[in-house]
Amino acid sequence: MQLRFVGCGDALGSGGRLNTCFHVSGESVNFLIDCGATSLPALKRYGISRDALDLILITHFHGDHFGGLPFLLLDAKFAKRKRPLVIAGPPGIDIRLTRLMEALFEHSSATKPTFDLQVITLEPAVPRSFGAVTVTPFPVVHGDSGGPFYAYRIEAGGRTLAYSGDTQWTDTLVAAAHDADLFVCEAYTYDRNVKNHLSLKTLETHLPEINPKRLILTHMGDDVLHRLDGVSHQGASDGLIVEL
User: Fold this and answer.
1) Would you state the pLDDT for residue 88?
2) How many CB atoms lie within 10 A of CB 126?
3) List of residues 6+ apart from 85 with CB closer than 8 A
4) Half-sphere exposure of 188 (CA within 13 A, CB side)
5) What is the mean predicted confidence (pLDDT) over 200-226?
6) What is the mean pLDDT of residues 97-103?
7) Could you tell me where the DSSP H helices lie in 105-191?
8) What is the pLDDT of residue 111?
9) CB within 8 A of 88, min separation 6: which ones?
10) How far apart are CA 140 and CA 166, in angstroms?
11) Distance CA 17, CA 14 (A)
């Protein structure tokens, strides 16, 4: 099983990086974690088949994590997709997706897709299985709008993948990522405290209790990117492939 960083940037495209979108694939799994606004061209750039996707997990409703869905669904319509697709995320995802579709492509939400599309609400701390993928959402702290906000602990292919989503420090990250084979975590700033986001130095103080087998930093702002050569942790880059 492998994870590919289709996009790993922040909302402002720091370092010229694309919006958040991770592709996880293996013998029995094929899914996305988040689908930011730049996801469709990035998926095409890397030759990732959209028709093969079974599941899209959304952490929250900000455009750099959620805004690519209308483009992906429109692409599926014109490609006459037949394979069923599940989109799952925090409470309100059905209403938010309808509003987003209408904001970007008028009347698109009323057009019946050519495939079975399910939009499913994930409840906090309640594991949910989708075929060979089991996902448990953990509430995180990322502001008053665009939420609820989730981190995910994902079990698939005998491996555990954790993703922080966008958040300031919260103890739920320990439960979400404890002993994970791979923890993909936001490091928006280096040591500066920014409300609703996580700094690398804050993350480092909690790494002993999280104890991931492997850590990869994502959603990095310019001050982290400029120091990345001197950071002891691996940083994500668009297109990076990681074996799990």
Assistant:
1) 98
2) 9
3) 53, 54, 55, 56, 76, 115, 116, 117, 118
4) 19
5) 97
6) 97
7) 172-177
8) 87
9) 55, 56, 57, 58, 119, 120, 121, 122, 128, 130, 135
10) 8
11) 6
The model's pTM is: 0.97
As a whole number, mean pLDDT of residues 131-146 equals: 93
Tokens of 6: 């289709």
The pLDDT assigned to 144 comes to 82
Task: Report strand pairing: 117-121 vs 85-89.
Answer: parallel
What is the model's pLDDT at position 227?
95
Which of 148, 136, 130 lies closest to 62 in space, CA to CA? 148
Q: Do residues 172 and 178 touch, judged by C-beta distance below 8 A?
A: no
- Ranges of beta strands (E only) in the chain are 2-7, 21-25, 30-33, 55-57, 85-89, 117-121, 128-130, 133-139, 150-156, 159-163, 182-186, 215-218, 234-235, 241-243
Maximum distance among all Cα pairs of the chain, rounded to whole angstroms: 51
Dihedral sign computed on CA atoms, order 153, 155, 157, 160:
positive
C-beta atoms surrounding 218 within 10 Å? 24
Tokens linked to 121: 């609400």
Look up residue 85 and give its two tokens.
């697709």
Q: Return mean pLDDT, the chain.
A: 97
Six-digit token string for 236: 């994500």
Q: Cα–Cα distance between 218 and 235 in angstroms, integer?
A: 6
